[in-house]
Amino acid sequence: MILLKRLLPMAALACAAVLAGLYWMGTREDAFPPPASAAAGAQADAGTLLERGRYLARIGNCAACHTAPGGRPYAGGTSIPTPFGTFHGPNITPDPATGIGAWTADDFWRAVHDGKAPGGRLLYPAFPYTEYTHLSRADSDALFAFLKSVPPVRQASRPHDLEFPYDQRALMAFWRALYFRPGGQPDRADAGRPAQWLRGRYLVQGLGHCAACHAPRNALGATRDPERLAGGMIPGLGWYAPPLGGDAVAGLGRWSEQDIALLLKTGLSPHSTASGPMAEVVLGSSQHLSDADAMAVAVYLKSLPATPPALDANAGTPSAALMEQGGKLYTQHCVQCHQADGRGSGQAWPPLAGNPTVTAPSPANLVRVVLEGGFAPATEANPRPHGMPPFGLVLSDNDVAALASYVRNSWGNAAGLVRPLEVKRSRDAGGD
Fold first, then answer.
1. Half-sphere exposure of 200 (CA within 13 A, CB side)
2. If exposure means fewest CB atoms within 10 Å of the residue's CB, which of 35, 204, 225, 383 is most exposed?
3. The domain made up of 320-429 is a member of CATH 1.10.760.10
4. How many CA atoms lie within 13 Å of 267's alpha carbon, on the beta-carbon side?
């Protein structure tokens, strides 16, 4: 008992020391001061800096989180559902009272690089500074210059709706200590790589923040092995972001670099059509990539190894009776567009044989498209895309499960069965 009384204070002190160390790690300043702002040296060519920033804002899809539907550009208000509550994109117009009008270029750099607002307030990683930390200072300054040029809007940012204890911002210090390190430009570790590959990696890991969707997350929302891009469910949305490595079935192994660049620019490819959240990414972001940048992204993604998907559905094989039921539904509702052999017809009706949306470890995307319809983005290169009608009001959960099971296991596909409960969950996630 005496020994226990002596050990308890020592254990308490050790715990306090560990917590204090973690808090310091999560709130400390970057070991290296931010590079001198490039904006001052660019004053003679302010127009070029502004256009560069406009381009970066587009390919970073800043408007997706900072422009509410029907709202003023970059005035905030977009709701972002997550397992921890709902975040609301803040006002980043140059209004000095409610936006970032009082910020300096150094303030903006610390936000994107260190995840800290002026005064040291820790930002939640719903703002993907975990990826934006790879931005160069020059690109940060150009992006800031563009945001300072948009019309200011006096509109207070909506507070986040978070559950306890996630609404305690001070706890972010411990999360950051465990999962975040301010990063430099990612090409430094691969100086011997070709310039095109380096550019692609910079875009994918930085401003494109592909890992925000295409990397699995742990229970606290931190990405696991973000460089693998092994795929995973998108938190709060009920859609599955597929692996982007070289796996021939679940990833991009069958895709050429040209196929990847085509999807990014148009929303279409010989293998699949962008739908759901990816359609929004193409519409608001990737279609604006220059041809050179789109190809650089494709070159980098094609270099990723074929690693097992982070999600292993292991759903089993559908029975003969289920396949027969699904085949009848396919003949009734799908064969006219997607053909009896599942090969589709031109760009309007994509193939289902070998389609990564169909063969993904998770059937969520396929089920959502059946329930809600499939709508490719209206891009500059494809302004009037064909759409697939929704069948959520026509087919029961059992019907959708049978149809999806048939499609996932025909024409060489072998992706496992779909259960009615999975359809119900997808229906609930989509509000259908």
1. 23
2. 383
3. yes
4. 30
Domain ranges of the chain: 21-156+167-184, 187-302, 320-429
Please give the sequence-ordered ranges of beta strands (E in DSSP) within 123-264, or none if there are none.
161-162, 232-233, 240-241
Question: Encoding tokens for residue 430?
Answer: 């989509």
Length of the chain: 432
Task: With CA atoms as reference, report the closest residue to 254 among 370, 372, 140, 413.
Answer: 413
Comparing 187-302 with 320-429, is the CATH topology the same?
yes
Q: Which residues contact 298 (CB under 8 A, 6 or more apart)?
A: 200, 257, 258, 259, 260, 261, 264
Q: Can you spell out the DSSP letters for 4-15?
A: HHHHHHHHHHHH
Closest CA to 75 of 49, 102, 104, 98: 98
What pTM did the predictor assign? 0.89
What is the C-alpha to C-alpha distance for residues 273 and 72, in angstroms, rounded to an integer? 30
Q: Indicate if the pLDDT at residue 160 is higher than 60.
A: yes
| Count of beta carbons in the 10 Å neighbourhood of residue 237 | 18
- The answer to whether 349 touches 241, Cβ cutoff 8 Å, is no
Question: Which sign, positive or negative, has the C-alpha torsion 87, 82, 264, 341?
Answer: negative
Token pair recorded at residue 309: 């998907």
CATH of segment(s) 187-302? 1.10.760
Which residue's entry shows tokens 């800043």? 62
d(CA 275, CA 312): 22
User: What does the pLDDT read at residue 250?
Assistant: 85
What pLDDT, on a 0 to 100 scale, did the predictor assign at position 44? Answer: 47
Whether residue 167 contacts residue 85, with contact meaning beta carbons closer than 8 Å, is answered with yes
By C-alpha distance, which of 160, 126, 377, 376 is closest to 235? Answer: 126
